[in-house]
Write a structure and sequence with these properties.
Strand content of chain A: under 5%
Shape of chain A: globular
Distance between the termini of chain A: 66 Å
Strand order of the largest sheet of chain A: 1-2
Largest sheet of chain B: none
Distance between the termini of chain B: 20 Å
Oligomer: heterotrimer
Number of helices of chain B: 15
Helix content of chain B: over 70%
Number of strands of chain A: 2
Helix content of chain A: over 70%
Largest interface: B-C, 58 and 54 residues
Radius of gyration of chain A: 20 Å
Strand content of chain B: under 5%
Order of helices and strands of chain B: HHHHHHHHHHHHHHH
């Protein structure tokens, strides 16, 4: 009996890591964009294009790495488009992101329709049991029997933290997001920094899409993300623009999703609709009652005008 | 700074004395749309469709016939209502991504109310159903509003999450308490409510079209919103909060309170859109009641220069684009996803094009940015 | 200079489209696919190659390639087109991803005013529009589903599918094949034929052995593939060795079954064997050609509606497509065949 409970807990936790993975990629990427002062609401569209390209690359070449590379390039292209519109042309970021999302949704569906046509599956990433670590009872099954994109996503958390908080470039990014005019006076290229951050974020979003299409579900379908990109943006706020906070948010969201699915499997008698609501409700509740309320980058959502306000 | 939504210069004072600037501002978005369509034409051609025929169908479908124009107005109604709410929210520097959920709440409770009080006469039932829609949507805007004001929880997070919650709530209501009993008897279990009593249906303005009286409600609320924002103290404070929160704070305005209020009102207007969709078009609650208006309403409001009166022509134009896009799919049989992509490009190009208008208005330092607002001589209310 | 940059990026994207491959046949004149042969019970096999062009317009909520509800009707029409002698005699126009009800109503009216012979509104949410518009176009025939209501109009056909019947057969077979005596169901939202299919499936399982455990999950979305995948994994880790589910997003569940390697799958709405050739045991397939084959000649001879059709096992509209790639034992096959025969004869009644 105890054994069965333990097995359930292990399965739920392993699932929560899988479920958190796409959000981790996309949210960490969005964090870079926002720390530099750009709100990119187009994450969902970038994820979709990344997911399709990863899927298509894998389908045609048989290599997941071609898929991953393709997703990154696709993300970069979308990121450049967003940068031109939102940084150079200083467009309203909220609306340009919505435009980008719409465009990505349309483009990915169109490419799928034209190039693939019907639902096909690919041989995506498989879970890899890490030597030694994977043999630890329970923990090995939770943490060290996952597919490579999951490991990479979690590795990106400390890496992102280090880059942002401990490197000169990270300082530049934070300065640009906090006080672009001052950064500019000090000789920082604000526009370039924002381009790099938005594009980096978009590459991460492309990877988030790939982690869905060639690691999690191993196929592509129109609107594969089902709005996950918007959740990823929300989790950046949850995480207070810090990698650890984002990790917490993604894990909370993933874990509660895994738990609600398990509750349904176990036949716990609440309407399924309310079970599905749980992760969304709890994210709000937890943030409301936690002390974790960082201030957002002061220049977020404000294009930079040299000498301007 | 709170959430720094940058306001277009429409908020500034000043009359459009600069003729060239006015021409530029009016023409720019059209040029942008044309450029986006040009890119779309390349895509159409690649797919083997004739772009000229396709765009002919788009225009004809939206504006070329009675049925096209009425359909455009049918779409413009919820776009305008949602857009008005977005105007209020964005004017207070609050980003409301939650209109989808607010529409749903308005639609669900309007349906419930109209069915629960089905014996009431129409003159009583119609207005009270719309009010219920307003209250339900306003509640869905109030929650993120109060969380932002009292607990500092960012509204983007709450509104995104609350959209998902609202969707599941509707799923529950139309398969549970509100499910059409006839569908259960027939063993169909369709995701729809019972049909609403006929006296709550809004009058159809032209036979054989969907055009309903809801458009007047939307237009009236546009004027009310304009008066509210530009002619009342509360409206003035909402705009002041958005323009300069720090100065507002020094002036003794309680910034969080006005931001919460603006989100509540935005929610209410989206809720009215939901109620009117139900009693004007669908006559029952159906899955997919929002038709994505929650997002296209944001686009509409920004096309309209975040001005209630500018949003009126903007909703007509954007509604026409959506209607024409459907016609284009029917006529030249391109996948709907291509049309979606082109619409995305149009949004991107139009927001990007405002760059040139802004540059000019920075130089001449007056007048609003967007064509619709400019055309109406909007921006000249006293700040 | 900045304009040029912008245009460059924007122009690059369609070029990607172009570079990626074959200009697509997006037109409806898709080469007649090898559609499933007409049901044995469909008496009038096809419209006679009439001299007059027969024009059909189709509206659907999802896409023509969803491997589920929308695709099933689109393919049926393409099959009818093939039988009628191709495009010259039988024109198909379609509108897909038509989820918005007001848009659908505009489309229905537009098609009707263009003089199509038959407008197929393939989604229960289109009913109100059909009811309203059909009155204005008495010479156009409308078909809509899934529902049973023709609104008392002489030019409206209604159609539906008794999804619970195939669900029952799948359930009987699933109960026969499970070793762990645990079966998982992954559904979208508990409405419509997702609900009725699963209701029938549960009855089928219970008919074999009421002690077999069935657990059900609902993802709350018809399109969230990732949630379906995780739902299926949750079932599998809880001991399920047979899964089923409904909606276009179940491709995610099938993927999870495939990854586990030894979990069987039962499909519905379309033949899903291609997605996991070793693990799909059988699929309930909707074959709308059966009703179209009856409806279209009626329209051609002047009867424009007034009838309700139901796809059933007994009229060949529902079929159980056994996957040839799965080695089904003769005993198990016999159990399924008996279930089919019992439902066809009326000996077993399945409630939706």
């Amino acid at each position: 009996m105890n054994e069965a409970v333990l097995a359930t807990v292990v399965a739920v936790l392993a699932a929560s890591l899988r479920l958190a993975t796409p959000y981790l990629y996309a949210s960490l990427g969005e964090m870079f964009a926002q720390r530099s002062g750009v709100l990119n609401l187009g994450v969902d569209g970038i994820m979709l294009v990344g997911a399709f390209v990863a899927f298509y690359g894998t389908l045609t070449t048989g290599s997941v790495w071609v898929g991953v590379a393709g997703a990154m390039v696709a993300g970069l292209a979308m990121g450049l488009l967003m940068s031109v519109v939102s940084v150079t042309l200083k467009a309203e970021q909220g609306i340009s992101g919505i435009g980008l999302s719409l465009f990505g949704l349309g483009l990915s569906s169109l490419l799928f329709k034209v190039l693939v046509g019907t639902v096909k599956t690919v041989d995506g990433f498989r879970p890899i049991r890490l030597p030694l670590l994977g043999d630890i009872p329970y923990l090995g099954e939770i943490f060290f029997t996952q597919s490579p994109p999951v490991y990479v996503a979690f590795l990106l958390v400390p890496i992102s933290w280090y880059v942002l908080e401990r490197t000169p470039w990270g300082l530049t990014v934070r300065a640009v997001g906090q006080n672009p005019a001052a950064a500019d006076t000090l000789g920082v290229n604000v526009t370039l920094t924002r381009y790099v951050c938005v594009c980096l974020g978009a590459v991460f979003a492309g990877l988030a899409g790939a982690s869905l299409s060639i690691a999690s579900v191993n196929l592509f379908q129109e609107n594969l993300t089902a709005g996950a990109g918007y959740i990823a943006v929300a989790l950046v706020y949850f995480g207070g623009w810090r990698p650890v906070g984002i990790l917490m948010g993604a894990l909370l969201f993933g874990t509660v999703t895994a738990i609600q699915l398990r509750m349904q499997v176990l036949g716990i008698a609440i309407p399924s609709d309310f079970a599905v609501m749980l992760p969304y409700v709890l994210t709000i509740v937890v943030l409301t009652f936690s002390a974790n309320r960082a201030r957002q980058p002061a220049a977020l959502n404000q294009p930079f005008e040299r000498g301007g306000a | 700074m709170a959430t720094g939504t940058r306001l277009p210069s429409g908020v500034r004072n000043g009359r459009g004395r600069d003729v060239l600037g006015t021409v530029l501002r009016t023409a720019l978005p059209l040029v942008a749309v044309a450029a986006a369509l040009l890119v779309g034409a390349v895509m159409l051609a690649v797919l083997g469709a004739d772009p000229v025929r396709a765009y002919g169908a788009l225009f004809e479908g939206a504006f070329g016939s009675t049925s096209g124009i009425t359909q455009t107005l049918v779409k413009a109604t919820p776009l305008l209502l949602v857009g008005l709410g977005i105007c209020i929210a964005f004017r207070a520097s609050v980003i409301n991504i939650g209109a989808e959920g607010q529409i749903i709440l308005g639609a669900v409770f309007a349906t419930w109310f109209a069915l629960a009080f089905r014996t009431w006469p129409g003159w009583l039932l119609i207005p009270s159903t719309i009010v219920i829609g307003f209250v339900a949507g306003a509640f869905w805007g109030f929650v993120p509003g109060i969380l932002k004001a009292r607990m500092g929880v960012n509204e983007i997070l709450t509104t995104v999450m609350m959209n998902a919650i609202a969707l599941q709530f509707m799923n529950y209501m139309i398969r549970g308490p509100l499910i059409d009993p006839a569908g259960v008897t027939a063993g169909q279990y369709l995701a729809q409510s019972e049909k609403l009593p006929e006296q709550v249906w809004l009058a159809r303005l032209i036979p054989q079209t969907l055009l309903h009286a809801g458009i007047f409600v939307a237009l009236a609320l546009a004027i009310v919103t304009y008066v509210f924002l530009w002619r009342t103290t509360i409206g003035y404070r909402i705009r002041a909060v958005g323009l300069n929160p720090d100065a507002s704070r020094y002036a003794g305005i309680r910034v969080p309170r006005y931001q919460a209020l603006s989100l509540t009102l935005a929610g209410g207007l989206a809720g009215v859109a939901g109620a009117i969709e139900v009693i004007g078009v669908q006559h029952r609650l159906l899955d997919g009641v929002t038709s994505g208006y929650g997002f296209s309403g944001i686009v509409t409001a920004l096309f309209g220069g975040l001005h209630p009166l500018g949003t009126i022509p903007a909703s007509f134009i954007f509604g026409g684009l959506l209607v024409g896009a459907d016609k284009m799919q029917r006529e030249v049989q391109v996948p709907s996803s291509l049309i979606q992509a082109i619409l995305g490009l149009i949004v991107l190009f139009v927001v990007a094009s405002q760059y040139w208008a802004r540059r000019r208005s920075n130089r001449t330092n007056d007048a609003p940015t967007t064509p619709a607002a400019a055309a109406l001589g909007a921006g000249d209310g006293q700040a | 200079m900045k304009i040029r940059k912008l245009l460059l990026v924007a122009a690059a994207l369609p070029i990607i489209v172009a570079a990626c491959g074959t200009p697509a046949a997006s037109a409806p004149s898709v080469a007649p696919q090898s559609a499933s042969p007409a049901a044995a019970t469909a008496s009038q096999s096809a419209a006679p190659p009439a001299a007059k062009l027969f024009r059909v317009a189709l509206l659907m909520p999802s896409s023509t390639t969803d491997l589920a509800f929308s695709q099933s009707m689109y393919q049926a029409l393409v099959a009818m087109q093939g039988k009628a002698g191709g495009q010259a005699n039988f024109e198909i126009k379609f509108t897909e991803n038509m989820f918005s009800v007001p848009d659908a109503q505009a489309a229905i009216r537009d098609y009707a005013s263009q003089g199509f012979d038959l407008v197929v509104a393939h989604g229960s949410q289109y009913g109100a529009g059909v009811e309203e518009i059909a009155k204005d176009f008495p010479k156009v025939s409308f078909a809509w589903g899934t529902d049973v209501n023709t609104f008392g109009l002489p030019n409206v056909f209604a159609y539906t599918a008794a999804a619970e019947q195939g669900g029952y057969v799948n359930g009987v077979l699933a109960a026969t094949l499970t070793k762990s005596r645990t079966i998982g169901v992954t559904g979208p939202v508990e409405v419509g034929d997702a609900k009725t299919y699963i209701a029938g499936f549960s009855q089928g399982v219970a008919a074999v052995d009421p002690a077999i455990k069935i657990s059900k999950t609902w993802t709350g979305s018809f399109s969230d593939v990732a949630a379906m995948t995780e739902a299926a994994k949750a079932h599998i880790t809880a001991g399920a060795d047979v899964l089923t589910g409904s909606s276009q997003s179940v491709v995610g569940s099938i993927g999870a079954a495939k990854e586990a390697g030894n979990v069987l799958w039962f499909g519905t709405q379309a033949d899903q064997a291609s997605l996991a050739p070793k693990l799909v045991v059988a699929s309930q397939v909707y074959d709308w050609t059966v009703i179209l084959g009856d409806m279209i000649p009626k329209i051609q001879s002047g009867t424009l509606g007034g009838e309700t059709y139901t796809l059933q096992l007994s009229n060949g509209g529902l079929k159980i497509a056994f996957n040839p790639g799965y080695a089904l034992s003769a005993e198990a096959k016999a159990v399924a065949d008996k279930a089919i025969a019992d439902i066809t004869s009326g000996a077993v009644k399945v409630t939706p």
